[in-house]
Amino acid sequence: MTTIARIETFLVAPRWLFVRVETGSGIVGWGEATCEGRSETVRAAVHQLAELLVGRDALRIEDHWQVMTKGSFYRGGPILASAVAGLDQALWDIAGKHFGAPVHQLLGGPVRDRIRVYGWVGGDEPGEVRDHIAAQVEAGLTAVKMNASGRMSPVASVAELDGVIGRVAAAREVLGNHRDVAVDLHGRFTLANARRLAPLLEPYRPMFIEEPVVPENSHLIGAFVGSTTVPVSTGERLYSRQEFLPVFQAGIAVAQPDLSHAGGITEVRKIAALADVYDVQLAPHCPLGPIALAACLQVGFATPNYLIQEQSLGIHYNRGADVLDYCADKTPLTFVDGHVERLTAPGLGIEIDDAQVRAADKKGHAWRSPVWRHRDGSYAEW
Ligand SMILES: O=C(O)[C@@H](O)[C@H](O)[C@H](O)CO
Ligand SMILES: [Mg+2]
User: What ranges in 57-119 are assigned the alpha helix state H?
Assistant: First the structure.
């Protein structure tokens, strides 16, 4: 009676796409297929993939993953990988509820009792960075991540470089030496800019420098790794083991697969195993909703090479919506001392508020990534 009977999707504020899978016996599994700025496109993909699942046994997760990712000949990319991810998470949620165990128990059992979390901080001026970090420290976090810059010239000016240094210096000053700051270059830097910046950041000892080059230029990341002693991270825009392999071979230190973009729990577990062979730690990308976060944490409780977890509780880019809005029980995602405690309930370990999600979907959302321009009018990376 674990036959898949019904698959629904919900487009909810601020920019998320939830997937609900129900079995004939009434077990409900939730997944998150959010792909920032592209969620409506993913939604269509989820409903087409649903044709492959309805009427089949929900517990054959690996087989469903094979069929969904390979079964229609044309494959790969963020849209399909996000759609598969949302469905895959929901199937793991169902399996956990069916067997009465949290997902990490099905993955081999807990290897840790709590997971360290970090949050994003904004601020254009050093003073603003200081204030935003002070608020996160006040909330108990021991690590934050900041963007290095806004729009960045292809060959950075002294003022642009000094702007980055000033803000990272301010971050280090308020954090002290017992907390960490990661610096996200966000694909805004050319390789030349990134190489010029890295030695200037070394005195502030960032936890890692993220996305030093755009993901389609993974062939350049080795040149960046070789230019700095700072650990290098990437992966929020890589969608499979095959796409991670070259960056592992190039020597990155931290892999950031997104549980909602990289094929879900099934694929990220395999990315983690591959990462382990290259001495790479996981720090999954997750500026997303509660289901994506729970899926990350389930992998984290069962994965030895797991550094830290990104999360967006209370963060202003969620524009008034919050990760906890859709949780019927807010306790599992409450942080203690900058960590989240092991989730013990069956499945993904959180309880989604069905009525709240249905109401939010009626309003929907139209979140889009901005399009930026350089001063001369040409396209600039966001
Ligand atoms: O590492 C991060 O959290 C950022 O790069 C976000 O993924 C990006 O702004 C799109 O949401
Ligand atoms: Mg990033």
Answer: 61-70, 78-99, 103-106
